[in-house]
Amino acid sequence: MTDMVCVGAIAGAYGVRGEVRLKSFTAEAEAIADYAPLTNEDGSQSFDLRVTRAIKNGLAVRLSGVATKEDADALKGLRLYVPRDRLPDLPEDEYYHADLIGLEVRDTGGTVLGTVKSVQNHGSSDLLEIHGPGLTVTVLLPFTREAVPTVDLASGRIIADPPEGIF
Which terminal Cβ of the chain has fewer Cβ within 10 Å, N or C? Predict the structure, then answer.
């Protein structure tokens, strides 16, 4: 598990007065402000933030040190992080996406299926993107109790019972 967790990304400037368009990765989008200050990945830049309003596909946000549209444009694509210890503990059977990425995936018989490359959500539920030996393309495995009965973060492994024909 990594010490820093990505909680948002800057999509570009919003308007001409230094606001940025922010995509929040927190469960409640506006809760990202509760974790401030946010930093870039290596911690060399730090930002306090204030959510000004919800907008289509994100939030309009004021960041400390960003006063002009040019300043905001320069941050496009920047991912924002917080130390893991600032995040709340999760109930049993809930996981941060960052904790799942990189875990080895095995089927119920012990055969290695691959490694979790990303966690995606296209509306109804989370999907684990798995890349592995013998796969020419990644596979999307539903992250449900039926398809993924066991997640063992301590051993770095997921036990999966994938639907027929998915692999």
Answer: N
